[in-house]
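Blinded run. Sample ID left blank on purpose so nobody reads anything into the name before looking at the predicted structure. Input follows.
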Amino acid sequence: MPTQLDPVSVPATVERVAETMLPTKYGLFRLLGYRDADNTEHVALVRGIDEEQVSARGNARSNAPLVRVHSECLTGDALGSYRCDCGEQLDAALHAISEEGHGVLVYVRGHEGRGIGLLAKLKAYALQDAGVDTVDANTSLGLPVDSRNYSQAADILQDLGVFRIRLLSANPAKQEALEELGITVVERRGLAVPERAENAAYLATKRSRMRHDRPANDDVWQQLLAGSAHPVAGTVDDEDLVHRYGFIAAARGSLVLAHLRQSLDGFIASRSGDDSFPGAGEDHGHLDRLRALMDAVVVGVGTVIADDCTLTVQSVRGSNPTRVILDPGGALPLAAQVLTDDAAPTIWVVAEETVVTDDLARHVSVVRTGKGGFDPSAVLGVLRGMGLAKVLVEGGGKTV
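Blinded prediction complete.
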């Protein structure tokens, strides 16, 4: 019987060095540390896989766990850069594996900038700032477009007894490389993450010049985002999307929705004042879909002070709504993310006599309203006058 640290097989290029548990916002994962022949360290996050059960290389699709082979990206993964979609792909992969309860994320070190290294990637970024695309930026520096080697990832999967996978990737070259290394890819699918203005050109280049998959234009969520009143549903999940959100896409003209999370004992916030109930994270996907389908999201200033929320779309495809903060007395902290993060336009609604600074970011507009201006009909009238017809009221309780 293998011990906890004994690999099922012993590939020549990697050595399993350590194993522990890693609690994350997506649940508990086994975390295994590896060292390769070049002394580079890698990790695998494993969920719901018993090595003795899968090492027999069964042929059934059920024996093929979800697998993400994720290339190290300091700027995207750790620093939250929007120049790429790496950090969001990492989050989406962990979420998908956690939801299914069966899968592996192999985090491959030494893949920074598709293998050219961190500082070379920053030099390539500087060229991209001047209008050069991501492919030509690398070649202009005398560097390969993609020099990644997936042998360590394949050997780590084989060490775990995983030989058949469902690959979470939009990159066919990654599938081809893994298959050449003895991993059977029974399915490959991309991860749905937001496409942002900051990375749109980067993603377009990968699709046009590096064979990356284009996002499906005919899936139900895309149809809903496009305003289709009668999207064509296929799977059970598609039917659920249509049932939940079809009426929003079909709405022509004014529509106001309110959203509150509530505990079974009738509270919309914990006794400490925050809204982070156990399990509240399960609601975020639904909330993000609502935000993506609406023109504006309205909250009272108390919600922003309590949560410092961004009110942006994070876990699904879609555009960010305009953020509307109702703040008669001008209590909104100037360091609040809605004022500092320009991911979405922000309307700061204050009373006529309230004094606020003029030194605000370009994405922030101050709207002053007189007596009675915070009446719901008056607020909605102002928003309709700005072309914001579909309005989501998120909170807090008094605002809703």
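Unblinding after everyone has recorded impressions. Residues 1-10, 53-61, 270-281 have pLDDT under 50 and may be disordered.
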